[in-house]
Specification:
single chain, alpha+beta, three-stranded antiparallel beta sheet, 6 helices, 7 strands, 40% helix, elongated
């Protein structure tokens, strides 16, 4: 976990320190120079872009552009209302799959994961964000911290996840 998150923590901490120096300068001349510099730039170039802290580089499948990105949490229908997906799934890993992968979903559930079909009427995918993740593949497997582990064949994903858990080593 530390190997995966340390780059994020470092980048965010460095950005916070940098912004603190920019915003909290007590020297009037430095503040005036900062303001002139910022106002002289086009609006889109006034601030330093945030370091790449979104994607994980380890603990995910390589070769998938979405592996290591944050999963867009859908809703689930509950009675007359709805609830957040995570309120039902808890801290379990997730497998969301297209129709035809029900056997892999059942196997994943039996191993302690939370699995749901994209076609399940209880799944409320506002904006089609989850569906877009599955546009070119059969399934997406999401880690308990809600980063995408990988996309692809549902059975292959569940096997890769089991291998990852058993070995503690980042998958290829």
């Amino acid at each position: 976990y530390q190997a995966e998150r340390e780059p994020h923590v470092r980048a965010i901490t460095e950005m916070a320190v940098f912004m603190g120096r920019v915003v909290c300068t007590q020297n009037e001349d430095e503040a005036a120079a900062r303001d002139r510099d910022l106002l002289s730039k086009p609006e889109g170039e006034r601030f330093m872009p945030m370091a790449d802290t979104v994607g994980l580089k380890s603990g995910v499948l390589s070769g998938d552009e979405f592996a290591g990105t944050i999963f867009p949490e859908p809703w689930l229908k509950k009675g007359e209302g709805r609830t957040r997906f995570d309120d039902v799934a808890g801290l379990a890993p997730l497998l969301i799959y297209r129709a035809g992968s029900e056997a892999a979903g059942e196997s994943f559930r039996a191993a302690g994961g939370f699995a749901v079909s994209l076609a399940d009427p209880a799944l409320v995918d506002e904006g089609g964000r989850v569906k877009s993740l599955l546009a070119s593949c059969e399934a997406v497997l999401v880690r308990p911290d809600r980063y995408v582990f990988g996309r692809g064949d549902a059975s292959a994903l569940t096997a890769a996840w089991a291998t990852y858990l058993a070995s503690g080593v980042s998958p290829a």
